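Reminder to self: tokens first, then the designed residues, so the page reads top to bottom the way the pipeline ran.
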């Protein structure tokens, strides 16, 4: 159904994400990737303004240049219901296999729906028929459906950065009956892994209105849509350059002391308590006189206003204290737990300096730290990546030391193996990991998604 002024999808790209940089775009991370895409293709980036007392309709321009940036308004009450509530106390725990942490509050879903509706109205008011609409993440699962109700026929894609819930867990969502219609309103619903696609397909199989066609596309209520995996990557070349050039901060480690590193937002999905305990198990088994390892865990707090995040913080501090209490000596602190934020260059330099990385989430859409760590290594003398089976990254990174983070004994074995791995095996594993990190990088991801979205046909 081509229109007068060009085929659908040949126009601007309109990106929607909850977070939008208000000033300079920080190097690295998703916001950096979006900046790159829009700088090359032109378009508009829409994100949430800081909460205020009243929320006006429409968009406020906050910058223009190679592309435009604009914000939509949300009220303080909506921030609490939409962001802290439905997005981060319902969708986040559920999609990370933690239905036990679900926290339903009256009005939270209504706030989420209201914000999604306002975003949809703002987009509908400015979208040209050829524009591609690319929605980011779990904050906006209802925007596409709202757009369709406003008769917007543009190509609409969503990329979910977090895992898709299992068919059983998803039943804990009060809005589960509506979820498949939210998904079906997109042309392309993108997920991180094949495992996620399987879960989403499984859920849709229970929707009597949806049918999977022989070409692999879904059909529902007169429309076609696709559920596909696009594993997100990093700017591998840029990250490697940064790591090579980085000045490694003075760590004051004893000579020959092995360094293990972990870098995560402080989140219960990242498996930090299990990680600390597995490291504690490793220390308990360490033979007297063996080098004394240091585990540097960098974990800045996030979402401090959500109770589950306060709880995990306390639990982690307790675990660190008790392990250090049991093993520390006058000149040795086994766990260094740092809550600060650092420049990417510092993080990159620390990765390069480390002998092993512990990337061991209990659930994670992808986990970019695993990829950053590989990109940062010196190929001649690389560190070892210890990676959880439950990180989306495990699907592409089979040459890491894959671990089950719940099983502290085998996890401790993996730490031991990493710290004693012969150079030839380290090089071999790293070389294999490096191929996927550099080939399936952030540019590859963006291109793969946009190519699908452009090439799709809804009817
Ligand atoms: P996150 O849950 O935020 O992202 P992740 O993919 O690990 O998780 O990205 C974190 C980023 O923040 C990394 O680039 C890391 O270097 C950086 N970072 C963390 N702590 C830092 C600190 N103290 N100082 C500086 N930088 C720090 C979500 C999903 C993931 C998915 C991404 C992208 O939960 O599974 O990989 O989106 O899709």
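Designed residues (459 positions):
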């Amino acid at each position: 159904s081509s229109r007068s002024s060009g085929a659908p999808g040949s126009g601007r790209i309109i990106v929607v994400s909850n977070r939008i940089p208000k000033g300079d775009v920080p190097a690295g991370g998703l916001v950096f990737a979006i900046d790159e895409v829009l700088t090359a293709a032109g378009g508009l980036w829409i994100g949430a303004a800081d909460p205020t007392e009243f929320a006006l309709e429409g968009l406020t321009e906050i910058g223009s240049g190679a592309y435009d940036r604009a914000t939509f308004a949300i009220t303080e009450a909506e921030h609490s219901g939409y962001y802290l509530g439905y997005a981060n106390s319902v969708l986040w725990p559920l999609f990370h296999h933690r239905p036990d942490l679900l926290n339903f509050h009256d009005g939270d879903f209504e706030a989420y729906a209201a914000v999604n509706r306002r975003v949809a109205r703002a987009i509908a008011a400015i979208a040209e028929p050829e524009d591609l609409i690319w929605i980011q993440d779990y904050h906006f699962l209802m925007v596409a459906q709202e757009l369709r109700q406003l008769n917007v026929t543009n190509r609409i894609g969503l990329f979910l950065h977090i895992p898709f819930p299992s068919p059983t867990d998803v039943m804990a969502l009060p809005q589960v009956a509506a979820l498949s219609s939210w998904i079906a309103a997109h042309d392309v619903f993108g997920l991180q892994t094949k495992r996620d696609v399987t879960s989403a397909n499984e859920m849709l199989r229970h929707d009597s209105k949806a049918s999977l066609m022989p070409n692999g596309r879904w059909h529902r209520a007169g429309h076609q849509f696709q559920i596909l995996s696009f594993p997100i990557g990093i700017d591998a070349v840029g990250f490697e350059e940064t790591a090579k050039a980085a000045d490694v901060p003075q760590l004051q480690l004893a000579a020959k002391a092995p360094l293990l590193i972990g870098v995560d937002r402080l989140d219960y999905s990242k498996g930090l308590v299990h990680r600390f305990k597995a490291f504690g198990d490793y220390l308990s088994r360490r033979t007297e006189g063996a080098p004394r390892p240091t585990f540097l865990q960098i974990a800045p707090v996030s979402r401090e206003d959500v109770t589950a995040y306060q709880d995990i913080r306390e639990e982690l501090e307790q675990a660190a204290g008790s392990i250090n209490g049991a093993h520390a000596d006058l000149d040795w602190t086994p766990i260094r737990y740092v809550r600060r934020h650092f420049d990417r260059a510092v993080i990159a330099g620390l990765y390069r300096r480390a002998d092993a990385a512990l990337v061991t989430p209990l659930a994670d859409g992808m986990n970019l730290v695993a990829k950053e760590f590989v990109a940062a290594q010196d190929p001649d003398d690389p560190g070892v990546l210890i990676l959880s089976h439950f990180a989306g990254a495990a699907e592409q990174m089979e040459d890491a030391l894959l671990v089950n983070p719940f099983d502290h004994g085998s996890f401790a074995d993996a730490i031991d193996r990493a710290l004693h791995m012969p150079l030839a095996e380290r090089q071999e594993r790293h070389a294999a990991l490096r191929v996927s990190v550099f080939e399936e990088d952030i540019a590859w991801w963006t291109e793969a998604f946009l190519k699908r979205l452009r090439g799709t046909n809804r009817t």
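The mean pLDDT is 94.
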